[in-house]
Design a protein that fits this description.
6 helices; 5-stranded parallel beta sheet; Rossmann fold; about 120 residues
């Protein structure tokens, strides 16, 4: 399973990134519950964008933020200064997935055992 970061979902909603819409049609994709919060919780979200994102969320596996995820995220934050949201995303990927798909590779490429893929700048 591959974990999709919030920024990839947001870019996929833009017409200049058709390759991301294709990517989201693939199987074995997941997102963290945190991604759902970040994307749907945006204060300027339009009704059209909300419908699009809800459709995407209905197609992918949504992984919970469990105690195990929080424990692993805590370990990651203890090892290196990183945002809590990034630590939760990384911990989710480490526990449940084979890779994380993100444009923000610098937030994750220092984590041993985590495969980081940027489908935009490849």
């Amino acid at each position: 399973m591959r974990l999709i970061d919030s920024n990839i979902l947001i870019y996929a909603a833009k017409p200049e990134f058709p390759q991301l819409k294709e990517l989201l049609g693939e199987e074995d994709l997941a997102v963290s519950e945190l991604t759902k919060l970040e994307v749907l919780g945006y204060h300027g979200l339009t009704e059209e964008a909300e419908e699009y994102f809800k459709a995407v969320f209905s197609l992918v596996t949504i992984l919970p933020i469990t105690s195990e995820v929080i424990d692993r995220a805590t370990e990651l934050k203890q090892q290196r200064n990183m945002k809590s949201a990034d630590a939760i995303i990384a911990a989710t990927a480490l526990l449940y997935c084979t890779e994380i798909i993100t444009r923000n590779t610098g937030d994750f490429d220092h984590i041993p055992g985590l495969t980081v893929n940027n489908p935009i700048d490849n």
